[in-house]
Amino acid sequence: MLGRVAKWLRMTGIDVLHWDKCDEKSNMLIQATVEHRIVLTRDRKLAKQRQALACYVVLSDNIEAQFQEIKKHFSIEFKEETFMSRCAKCNGKGFRIVPLEEVRVGDDVPARVLETVTDFWACLLCAQLYWVGPKYSTAHAKMQEIFGDIGSQ
Questions:
Q1: Is 90 exceeded by the pLDDT of residue 112?
Q2: 3-class secondary-structure state, position 150
Q3: Widest CA span in the chain
Q4: Which residues form the Mut7-C RNAse domain (predicted)?
């Protein structure tokens, strides 16, 4: 499965849709064709049955190696301004600022976060909440490791 790779690609600002194993493959192939998408897969049979569709078979079974392989094959570069510009959950592009009072009403954010964080954003499509915290810092550090020192770009 390439679900984690999809999230990592989204973190770099790339428009990525992820199909679940239970989704109908023919629907996925139709949508990919209509939207002019490249299909990334580990399934060699799927790659062989494709019809006039750009398809790339990811060889590695390790998440970091998969990402490196895709990055190299498609010449993906990191741009600081696109980091976290898409929702990692749904691929949505666009966020709204969520007032702290609104965040406090819900139960989506741990109390310890509410004590230290004041800036929150929500995806315009799925309403997933985001804030700058340890996960953000870890993700940014991972991208720095993969792409080199992105802070200097």
A1: yes
A2: helix
A3: 53
A4: 1-141
